[in-house]
Amino acid sequence: QVQLDESGGGYVQTGGSLRLSCAVSGRAFTSYTLAWFRQSPGKEREFVAVIRNDDGRTYYANSVRGRFSISRDNAKNTVYLQMNSLKPEDTAVYYCAVDVDSGGYDYWGQGTQVIVSS
């Protein structure tokens, strides 16, 4: 069983920054692909960013590329999402997710709220 504990959400003005953290339990952290998703009111959950387990490559949604950065600290079993130049449309609940065997996202965090005021 893998458990995820997100933190770092909050309220910020347009143009501000936040860093989300997701602590992941489990002995095989280095083998996990890690991702962030978000869901805004009335919308479906959408992909934000992913960092692969094998080569560490990162991929981003077009809407956040150049502003957000995903990273991982294998010593701390933690994945981060640095969010800069935030916009009101970034307002959402952000979820981290873990893919343990390249078969899809098996585990999800409880979500952390981000609100960006205009």
Task: Characterise this structure.
The chain is mostly beta strands and 118 residues long. It has strands spanning 4-7, 10-13, 18-24, 33-39, 46-51, 58-60, 68-73, 78-83, 92-99, 107-108, 112-117. The strands form two sheets. Strands 2, 4, 5, 6, 9, 10 and 11 form a seven-stranded mixed beta sheet that branches. A four-stranded antiparallel beta sheet has the order 1-3-8-7, with no helix packed on it. Strand 7 (68-73) and strand 8 form a beta hairpin. 32% of the residues are buried. The mean pLDDT is 95.
Arithmetic mean of pLDDT = 95
In oligomeric terms, what are we looking at?
single chain
State the share of residues found in helices, binned by percent. Answer: under 10%
Strand % is: over 45%
Structural class: mainly beta
Radius of gyration, in Å, reads 13 Å
> Main beta sheet: strand number and arrangement?
7 strands, mixed
How many alpha or pi helices? 0
- Count of individual beta strands: 11
- The low-confidence parts are none
Query: Roughly how many Å apart are the termini?
Result: 40 Å
Looking at the structure, what is the overall shape?
globular
What is the chain-wise order of helices and strands? Answer: EEEEEEEEEEE
Would you spell out the secondary-structure blueprint of this structure?
Elements: E1 4-7, E2 10-13, E3 18-24, E4 33-39, E5 46-51, E6 58-60, E7 68-73, E8 78-83, E9 92-99, E10 107-108, E11 112-117
Parallel strand pairs: 2-11
Antiparallel strand pairs: 1-3, 3-8, 4-5, 4-9, 5-6, 7-8, 9-10, 9-11
